[in-house]
Design a protein that fits this description.
The chain is globular. Helices cover 29% and strands 17% of the residues. It is an alpha/beta fold. Helix 1 (10-21) links the parallel strand 1 (2-6) and strand 2 (25-29). The protein has three domains: 2-36 and 182-265 and 377-432, FAD/NAD(P)-binding domain, CATH 3.50.50.60; 41-99 and 269-365, Polyamine Oxidase, Chain A, domain 2; 103-177, no CATH class. It has a six-stranded mixed beta sheet, sandwiched between helices. Strands 6-2-1-10-19 form a five-stranded parallel beta sheet, covered by helices on one side. The structure holds flavin-adenine dinucleotide. Flavin-adenine dinucleotide is lined by residues 6-12, 29-32, 38-40, 56-59, 61, 191-193, 236-238, 241, 246-247, 269, 271, 366, 371-372, 375-376, 402-403, 411-416. This is Amine oxidase.
Length: 459
């Protein structure tokens, strides 16, 4: 029995690892010509400096909690150098330059108390199995009414900076968080999949209703014309890729699957790296928070020649500015020169007119890249478990994995690793002992019976 795994990101690699360990013939098809790792991707910056920055994932989350993040043993095994981030080591600067840091610290403490209250409220609501509400509603119920740039900077840096969406669009009752040489010949790089024929009967007709045993193998076609067949296929493509038309599924996926794919959010999170010929900023904190006049426009700056990256970036003057959501989309659409000019202007607002011109800028475009179409998944407000079941459920010989298929840790590398491991294990069971049952729901019924309004019935 053979299995094709589509994509060599964290989830695809871990699914393949389980299959290979069980003695199953597995092939991974990956579009990139020279790299595995998907949304974990390093690039040299500044150019020709011998230093590397991570365009995608760079944090191992929740190391202080009592659950082990599966990334940690890997990092330890391979001796990867990593440093803790101190998110409180920050300076606040307003659009007109410096700011009284004690006022900033007081406001930050007030917001910490609000998030504490919101979290208690969320615990109570989850215990009562209450229908979720937006985090914005939760903040207001806890007494948070942001009134000026400093409040918005605190809110953005505490929330949007992690989740890439605003509290208005985000659920208050988020599922669990962590406390807060793959060998070779079965990995095929430079293989951009264009079509997946996943249900074909022996006579060539659609076999949606046939038992798996009476179907032909799955057929995967790549852009270079090569064709691969196997008994099973596991898609590890991102939710963003599934939401677009870069890959064709033949026959078309069933309506319940399509609906679930389009019902979840693919967030936009963009890390802009910018380097300067000299250091002009006077703050020595790890972060600088900017009191932007337009919410989220250049609110968070991470300083690479401050601790803990100081040694690695010695002699370089690099800042990392993160943007999310609509600002990230806007930045992707415009030229890097325009973005550079906008960032330099904000730095001049903070540090005066002597800010030099930037020597280099690096703007990743995760949202328009056809291999990703976004950064990571979030659950929209009002989402229900049945829709998630439909997102994950395999159909005949076609299986789905990826960070978006992790119920507890979607959006993260550890979510991708745990999801890939589970999918790999389940396909092994399917081949060796009979397929595990995955629930799915052809129609998700309205539980409250209130949405079918006729004319004049709204009152
Ligand atoms: C900017 C950014 C910051 C992040 N920060 C963090 C963080 O700090 N910590 C954390 O835990 N997580 C973070 N994440 C999320 C994390 O990177 C992802 O959740 C995780 O890497 C997803 O892994 P995956 O295997 O599900 O998908 P992917 O990594 O997307 O893997 C899918 C693979 O499929 C390939 N592919 C796509 N289309 C095709 C095709 N047509 N043919 C062949 N191959 C194809 C892709 O090239 C890719 O290799 C971040 C993500 C981004 C973008």
């Amino acid at each position: 029995t053979s299995v094709i795994v589509l994509g060599a990101g964290a989830s695809g690699i871990f699914a393949a690892k389980q299959l290979k360990a069980a003695g199953i013939d597995v092939t991974i098809l990956e579009a990139r010509p020279d790299a595995i790792g998907g949304r974990m991707h390093k690039v040299e910056f500044p150019p020709k400096s011998g230093r590397f920055v991570e365009l995608g994932a760079n944090w191992i989350e929740g190391l202080g909690s009592n659950i082990t993040n599966p990334v940690l043993p890997l990092v330890q095994k391979w001796g990867v150098n990593f440093k803790p981030t101190d998110f409180t080591n920050t300076t606040y600067r307003s659009a007109s330059g410096s700011f009284d840091q004690s006022v900033f610290q007081d406001r930050l403490a007030a917001f910490s108390a609000i998030t504490e209250m919101t979290s208690e409220l969320s615990d109570k609501r989850m215990a009562a199995d209450a229908l979720d509400i937006s985090l914005r509603a939760g903040y207001r119920m806890a007494g948070w009414y942001p009134k000026d740039e400093i409040d918005y900077a605190i809110e953005w840096n505490t929330f949007d900076y992690e989740q890439a969406e605003t509290p208005d669009d985000f659920i208050m009752d988020k599922p669990a968080e962590f406390g807060c040489g793959y060998g070779s010949n079965c990995l095929k790089l430079n293989k951009t999949v264009s079509e997946i024929r996943w249900a074909v009967g022996n006579d060539g007709v659609s076999a949606l209703d046939l038992p798996v045993s009476r179907q032909s193998p799955v057929k995967v076609t790549c852009k270079d014309g090569s064709v691969y067949t196997a008994d099973y296929v596991i898609s590890s493509f991102s939710l963003g890729v599934l939401q677009n038309v870069d890959v064709k599924f033949a026959p078309t996926l069933p309506d319940w699957k399509i609906q679930s794919i389009h019902s979840f959010h693919m967030a936009a999170y963009t890390k802009i790296f910018i380097s300067f010929p000299s250091k002009f900023w006077t703050d020595n904190t790890e972060f600088i928070w900017y009191g932007a006049t337009r919410r989220g426009e250049f609110t968070n700056w991470q300083v690479f020649d401050a601790a803990p990256y100081k040694e690695y970036f010695k002699g370089e003057h690099v800042l990392l500015c993160t943007v999310t959501d609509q600002v990230a989309f806007r930045i992707e659409r415009q030229s890097d020169e325009q973005t550079k000019a906008e960032l330099v202007q904000v730095l001049k607002n903070m540090y005066g007119p002597k800010v030099p011109n930037a020597s280099a800028i690096l703007v990743p475009r995760w949202n328009s890249d056809p291999l990703f179409r976004g950064s990571f998944t979030n659950w929209p407000i009002g989402m229900i478990k049945e829709e998630f079941d439909n997102l994950v459920a395999p159909i005949n010989r076609l299986w789905f994995t990826g960070e978006h298929t992790s119920l507890e840790y979607f959006g993260y590398v550890h979510g991708a690793i745990l999801a890939g491991t589970k999918t790999g294990d389940d396909v092994v069971k399917c081949i060796k002992n009979g397929c595990p049952k995955y629930p799915y729901h052809p129609v998700i019924h309205n539980a409250h019976g209130t949405t079918k309004f006729g004319k004049g019935e709204r009152q």
